[in-house]
């Protein structure tokens, strides 16, 4: 079977071909082309497109294409499901999902930078994911520090650090500045990126991702931004001049369907029902 996707792969477009060849179709042919050529070549070859919008094999809400392959082909291997949040975190820049995500992103970005041929890059990526899979199967509980004495010293040191943090939990300057940036840009920049913001703050993105939830309602960056978008949407639903598709656009969702799913997840109601209940409540108040 032939599979086709965008050129210059890094995370999902390497992880998915690895998954296909190792667990779905060992003879699969992977094709990398410019995105504009995909519809034509997918029909001519024919080939199944993946990791591009408006296809079956793509991102869904906060899940990446790797997650969809696992679900579609009912792959239940525990090691694959240990890999899934690592791939998802690296592919979506949500490194809080797994501590290994930042490392996977760094290695993948470096491989892509050093390797200009996509098919050579895929072969190197196959070795990378073979190694990750072995770790997820056999080594995920092991630590680099094996000496009992070293472990004990590290435990004591980490306990001391935890106590010091508990004694004085001061909000860092970057957290205050980050909140101001989000508040300032929320209405105008609907594609806020933790990576871009980390550059503005001059803070390591992996550290920022890991520490974010401590100062933002115990939410990840993605969850916090979605929460703000839903809050903005509830305000716009009070204004009858905006259609649901317009509100979806104004709050940064890909389309009305995506907006409806996320809104219902957070509020328990569809946007249309929420708006009707608002109107009914106003009418009852006047009555």
UniProtKB/TrEMBL annotation:
One Pfam match, given by its short name, reads ChrB_C
Residues of the HTH araC/xylS-type domain:
176-277
- Record-level Gene Ontology MF annotations: 2-isopropylmalate synthase activity; DNA-binding transcription factor activity; sequence-specific DNA binding
The protein's matches in InterPro entries, at most eight in alphabetical order, are given as: ChrB_C, Homeodomain-like_sf, HTH_AraC, HTH_AraC-typ_CS, Tscrpt_reg_AraC-type_HTH
Keywords (A to Z) from UniProt: Acyltransferase, DNA-binding, Transcription, Transcription regulation, Transferase
* Its EC number(s): 2.3.3.13
What is the recorded name of this protein?
2-isopropylmalate synthase
